[in-house]
């Protein structure tokens, strides 16, 4: 009864694979007509855009003679292919590629909606942010990116609801990195004792797979800064770039010059114990004030201040009580008064990130009919 | 460019008034063509359905000769009027009227979407719940009722996203009543000492305006039971009625027979101190176990168990740490693992309840175009 909706998916990493598994189980799923990985693109043949790619069996679908196989396509080529489909089209970008994100306006202007957990398009230069939403309006297309902050947690949808209904968001504060959450919940637990040395906790997080391949990408605070940039912009602040505000890096200045290679990571880990004393001091200073230290991001809407770094919190606060690698996001608003609206839970991981993408996809499909 | 959407609003109490204020400030607001209070209905004149009622000045609009004034209309009459409007129509029910809720299928079958904080339609007999969603499908209309649980907090939208994307919700647990949250956070604070006698805390809540006019409507647990019924049904359980599971009432059996009048309330308050000893015992029993007592609701999806009543919680749990009259809702799911997805904040009050209604209205408008 309703016209079919056509779907292109780029990226088959952790999130991409989890997303395809969820897509395969979706009732009334859209027609998957393009699946691109770094070196290969699988397509439903033109001009019929049929048969579709079976999401459940995408790994073996490459051997299906009925489907078209190509090498890597440019964003322009993908956009042209999707725009010519016989119905509304959606691009799901499951990469973290800044190049592809920079091309979102090309898709949107041609009426192709975007659903993505890729932070790059929304947290880089302000000009790109503005161009994305202008292109969406121009192309009558939609942009949903819930999973760019807090993975599947209802963070952006909640903030957008607050803003759209006329509430005044005064402050947003929280722990936005699963890795940094784990590091500080372990290093400086509310109970006080235990915790171990900083370098040991970092090594443990690395062994448990809680960090990026190069764990300095977690410790430098840039991932958190990108999330704060997105939140601040939705709250109405014109943040020029993700480094346009103070970001406290947990990479000691003395180690900042190490190469961005596997060897650089090894050297970094080997020298990190030299700085255990510094981190112990930070922890003890908080202890003496009856508090704990946590790595947080905050947006103060009235003063237009965005900052990312270490801060002390009362032991009975929600941020101090966080467990494992959970995220927590507190929205202070005029309507909610002194007690904030809080969202808390796992803010990283393939399945929950993909859940945010799938939920967005469902909403976009509902709006496109 | 898009066809106008027509809006009928019933109820101008606390939530209704707050909603109309939010509606008045909404960009691209729908045309308000019907505003009904208990004894009077204001309408945009037929057949033009124009001029619309000014949401900002609805109190004085009754004196506008250009608008039609009538007495109370039946649900059938309201539905006929809205269905004949020259575009898609939405009914916002800001009452808590079970009669009107029972008529939702009449509206939905005629293509009129429903947005409401009224719990009655979704928490009464299972047959009505099923009829509502069948009628919506039949009439190609939408039903949004976020504010029926946790007011403007993103509770139902989150649960629906979890279910729709294929997560397996195993357990839902939380504090669902602002009144009961305040009573137990005050009576049995995590700090232990203080708190005062149960009857004093109840009297304090009444004086602060935190209770229903007849505070026994809070203490009997039925409001919480209705919310649990809604959550359990969205999670997939066929709960027959809001009293089809164990509900622990905080009204002592000896006082259950008091009349449902203002005099009954006065007698209840006068005799409540007789039961302070019982409540102190419950509190002390928890203390001895190193815990605190809270009034919670829970849905165990696997065992299909729904229950509402007192339960002990560890002092470092999120439920124990709740402040003021906040609600907290924890979703335990397969994807989220041992740490639940948590939503927390004010779960009552005109402004935040209306915010949930307005946010739903925006979503319905986006889907209707």
UniProtKB/TrEMBL annotation, chains A, B:
The keyword NADP applies. Transmembrane segments: none annotated. Pathway: Amino-acid biosynthesis; L-methionine biosynthesis via de novo pathway; L-homoserine from L-aspartate: step 3/3; Amino-acid biosynthesis; L-threonine biosynthesis; L-threonine from L-aspartate: step 3/5. It comes from Aspergillus terreus. Its EC number is 1.1.1.3. NADP(+) binds at residues 11-16. The keyword NADP applies. This is Homoserine dehydrogenase. The active site is at 227 (proton donor). It holds the Pfam family Homoserine_dh. NADPH binds at residues 95, 119. Belongs to the homoserine dehydrogenase family. GO terms for biological process: homoserine biosynthetic process; methionine biosynthetic process; threonine biosynthetic process. It comes from the Eukaryota. Its cofactor is a metal cation. It is an enzyme of class 1 (oxidoreductase). It catalyses: L-homoserine + NADP(+) = L-aspartate 4-semialdehyde + NADPH + H(+). L-homoserine binds at residue 212. GO terms for molecular function: homoserine dehydrogenase activity; NADP binding.
């Amino acid at each position: 009864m309703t016209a079919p909706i056509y779907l292109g998916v780029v990226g088959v990493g952790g999130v991409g694979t989890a997303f395809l598994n969820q897509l395969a189980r979706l009732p009334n799923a859209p027609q998957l007509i393009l699946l691109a990985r770094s070196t290969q693109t699988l397509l439903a043949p033109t001009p019929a855009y049929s048969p579709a790619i079976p999401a459940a069996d995408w790994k073996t679908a490459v051997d299906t003679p009925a489907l078209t196989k190509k090498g890597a396509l440019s964003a322009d080529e993908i956009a042209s292919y999707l725009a010519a489909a016989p119905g509304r089209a959606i691009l799901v970008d499951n990469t973290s590629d800044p190049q592809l994100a920079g091309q979102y306006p090309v898709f949107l202007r041609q009426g192709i909606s975007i659903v993505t957990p890729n932070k790059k398009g929304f947290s880089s230069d302000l000009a790109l942010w503005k161009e994305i939403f202008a292109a969406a309006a121009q192309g009558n297309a939609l942009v949903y990116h819930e999973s760019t902050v807090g993975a599947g947690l209802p963070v952006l949808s909640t903030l957008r609801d607050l803003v759209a209904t006329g509430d005044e968001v005064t402050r947003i504060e929280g722990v936005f990195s699963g890795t940094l959450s784990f590091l500080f919940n372990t290093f400086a637990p509310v109970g006080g004792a235990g915790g171990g040395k900083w370098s040991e906790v970092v090594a443990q997080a690395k062994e448990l797979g809680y960090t990026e391949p190069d764990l300095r990408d977690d410790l430098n605070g840039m991932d958190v800064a990108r999330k704060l940039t997105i939140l601040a912009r939705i709250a109405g602040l014109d943040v020029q770039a993700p480094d346009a505000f103070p970001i406290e890096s947990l990479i000691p200045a003395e180690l900042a010059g190490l190469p961005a290679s596997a060897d650089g990571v090894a050297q970094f880990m080997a020298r990190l114990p030299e700085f255990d004393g510094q981190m112990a001091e930070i922890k003890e200073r908080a202890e003496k004030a009856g508090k704990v230290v946590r790595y947080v991001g905050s947006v103060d809407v009235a003063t237009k201040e965005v900052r990312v770094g270490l801060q002390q919190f009362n032991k009975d606060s929600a941020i101090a009580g966080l467990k494992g690698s959970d995220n927590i996001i507190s929205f202070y608003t005029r309507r909610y008064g002194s007690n904030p609206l809080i969202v808390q839970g796992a803010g990283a991981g393939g399945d929950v990130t993909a859940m945010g993408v799938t939920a967005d996809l469902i909403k976009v499909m509902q709006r496109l009919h």
